[in-house]
Known about the structure:
The chain has a domain at about 35-73. The chain is about 70% helix and about 0% strand. The chain has two helices and no strands.
Amino acid sequence: MAIVTRIDVSLDLNQPVRExxxxxxxxxxxxxxxxxxxxKQVDEEIGAALAKLEREAVKDDQDAAGLDKxxxx
Length: 73
């Protein structure tokens, strides 16, 4: 029996959350006994991405506030 180590997928980018969830399910179900470890690592990656986006959003808000103050002068 051949071991599958690569899967090509086609994604509908109009449904990003559903597609991400489906890919995660596909991957973790192919690694019995490792699901929790995989999901914890994915959680760390998502947390880091969220933190970065939140920092950027705060910076953008601060920059926009600075521009508003300068344009009022």
